[in-house]
Amino acid sequence: MRHALSLLLLLVWSALPTAFAQTADLNDAQLERYHELNAELRCVICQNRSIAESDAPLAKDLRGIVARQLAEGRSDDEIKAYLVERYGEWVLYDPPFSWSTWVLWLGPFVLLFVGLVFVIAVMRGRYRAPEPRPPLDRERLARVLKSHEAGPDDTDKDRS
Asked: Where are the alpha helices (DSSP H) in 72-134?
């Protein structure tokens, strides 16, 4: 048991330098940019998680790429362009407006507009003025009332 615990401690200890090696060569400004970029880039495997949050091996590789390119002096836009070239626009949390992303940007507004038009159409249909009633035939009404007042025996005479 003691040997297993010692071996586990040795493995953890040996993994620590590699975890911090990615950012060891960065100064404070680069380190701040590193964290900002990691928050802006999406892990391609873990959908809707940034590479900073993800524990996937690919996210670790992406963090390494970002750190290396920052150490080489590349700008944020150059790093993003490199990653988009390799992994597509999916890697960006905030993709730019283009022909391939117009549905993503305009879709919610179009759906909102269609929903409002539908609600207005339903509300207008619900509150329409009632259709006018046909004019009252007063002569016929008078005859029917008179026949009911006369009694049941007299109505049989009218029908024959």
From this structure: 76-87, 102-126
Could you give the C-alpha distances from 14 to 20, 65, 68, in angstroms and in order? 11, 22, 21
Angle of the 28-40 helix axis to the 57-71 helix axis, nearest 10: 140
| Neighbour-count burial of 57, counting CB atoms closer than 10 A to its CB (0-12 exposed, 13-18 middle, 19+ buried) | exposed
85: which 2 tokens? 């070239």
- Rounded to the nearest integer, the mean pLDDT of the chain is 79
CATH code matching the domain that covers 15-91, chosen among 2.60.40.420, 3.90.580.10, 3.40.630.10, 1.10.8.640 = 1.10.8.640
Residue 148's CB is within 10 A of a number of other CB atoms, namely: 11
Structure pTM?
0.52
CA distances from 149 to 80, 138, 154, 158 (A): 94, 16, 9, 13
Q: Using pLDDT thresholds of 50, 70 and 90, give the confidence band for residue 17.
A: very low
Domain boundaries, the chain: 15-91, 98-128
Q: Name the more confident of 96 and 73.
A: 73
Q: For residue 87, give both structure tokens.
A: 């992994």
